[in-house]
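[step 3/7] inverse_fold.run input=structure_tokens len=152
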């Protein structure tokens, strides 16, 4: 499972010109699942994300979490995070999880964010052609990959 996390001043996602999710200060999270990912990975990344300290404290140090600043999450599913560009110029997406299972895991991940204290989780529409607008704050962009983070 992969997450691309951007600290934002604002972010929104729309489908067919209608906004389906919008936040001010918080994280825009692009969510991708690969074949074999399970709830264990989703729970781990949700917990890690909820505690991620990349908001500035009174000393301008990245030391505060989403929960501490009362910020929100805009979660957007994105199977293209598992695009493989090793061969040719057209990415292969065979590592991406099949849509039905990916949707279930995406929804579980969003529920886990709430279970970990994130009060406001906005979303796009799974599988739709979405348009995402954001103002990256910093810019601060972090990538989390369960395969790397959960190695033993």
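[step 3/7] decode complete -> sequence:
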């Amino acid at each position: 499972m992969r997450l691309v996390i951007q600290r934002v001043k604002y972010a929104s996602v729309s489908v067919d010109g209608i906004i389906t999710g919008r936040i001010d200060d918080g994280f825009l999270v692009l969510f991708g699942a690969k074949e074999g990912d399970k709830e264990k990975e989703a729970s781990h990344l949700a917990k890690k994300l909820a505690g991620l300290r990349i908001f500035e404290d009174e000393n301008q140090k990245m030391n505060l979490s989403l929960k501490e600043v009362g910020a929100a999450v805009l979660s957007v599913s994105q199977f293209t995070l598992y695009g493989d560009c090793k061969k040719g110029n057209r990415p292969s997406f065979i590592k991406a999880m099949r849509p039905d299972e990916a949707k279930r895991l995406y929804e579980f991940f969003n529920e886990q964010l709430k279970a970990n204290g994130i009060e406001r989780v906005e979303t796009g529409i799974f599988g739709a052609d979405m348009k995402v607008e954001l103002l990256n704050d910093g810019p601060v962009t972090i990538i989390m990959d369960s395969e790397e983070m959960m190695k033993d």
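[step 4/7] annotate
The beta strands are 2-15, 18-32, 55-56, 62-64, 72-77, 121-123, 130-145.
Residues 6 and 12 are 13 Å apart (CA to CA).
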